[in-house]
Automatic annotation (TrEMBL):
Residues 17-390 form the Major facilitator superfamily (MFS) profile domain. It comes from Nonomuraea fuscirosea. GO terms for cellular component: plasma membrane. It is a multi-pass membrane protein. This is Putative MFS family arabinose efflux permease. SUPFAM superfamilies: MFS general substrate transporter. GO terms for molecular function: transmembrane transporter activity. Its main location: membrane.
Amino acid sequence: MERPPFLRAQLGGLPRPFWALWGGTLVNRLGTMVMPFTGVYLTQSRGLSVVAAGLVMGVFGAGSLVSQVVAGVLTDRIGRRATLSGGMLATSAAMLALGYSTSLPAILASMFVLGLVIDVYRPASNALVADLVSPEERPRAYGLLFWGINLGYSVGMTAGGWLAGIGFIWLFWIDALSGVVFAVLVWRAVPETRPEGSHSAGGFLMVLRDRVMVGFTLVALGNALVYSQTMTMLPVAMTKVVKLTAGQFGTAMALNGVLIVLVQPLASGWLGRRDPARTLATGLAVMGVGFAMTAYVTTTLGLTVTIAVWTAGEIMTAGIAGAVVARLAPPELRGRYAGLFGFAWSLAAVLAPLLGGPLLELGSRALWFTIGGVGFAAAIGMLLLGPAIRRR
């Protein structure tokens, strides 16, 4: 049966191995149930204090910081397919180890290993897309991956909340099984694409000598610091300061996933044909506006409006950042470049609560105007990098 013209425009022209990678990513995100409920699991199921649970999450963050650098090197040295599949199998083992850990030392060890391996697949996945897809189609391909991640995550979150009521161990097993499926699917259906000579391409110093990439990594850090507030300070501010209920906050936040699932596939092709630096800068500025508006939120409706604004910015940036990294990176260093980009997001996950907490103590306006300012600073940085990126 022939696809309608719209579907051909959105889905056509991408190689079959890309769709195997996309399908594996979707399955993995459908099974991502543990991390959103980790705090609840640690305090309720394992009886840890809030302080101890914070320590465990900090250890996870430390592992995550190391993860992206190591994964970038492995992607270039041993190959994209081996790194991705191996990382997912290691994640599945770490998930089960955490699920059956009962003492604090065992939980800390499991969480550090989980932080180390859970995102190993990201540099490998980014490098695979760059290797498999033509430069013209990369923004659309990265955008479709982003869409699949959000589609799977929304369903996984809903199912995870239901399964947590039955027993947390179910979450660990489903998460582990989805990782195994992802690993097997990539190993069987995605060819190794690592260029010859990548194993001897040098270390991270070669990436750090690329001033355009370092500048872009700082832009990515600003983007990540803004977005990370959705998982750190936004829930706290809305429930503790604005006094919304958890149900009201959850209902408003659901709009983010709905808009991405419905709008992002429609926009990815058109956005991919625009200048990447200007498109990304515009998206970052729109996100900055949305988060700055949060300072004036007093109702669920007001929160919904701000979410719609920053989600529009998020949709504009989806897929563009990955395409920029692929454009900047020599083929033999794509894993390392993607690893440095991923490091910015891991660092932001650690810094966001450390910066956001004290700012929220000063007041909502101090927090949200600062976050909006970070978004605008990242947008300006992106515009300044535009000419250098276009020359590549």
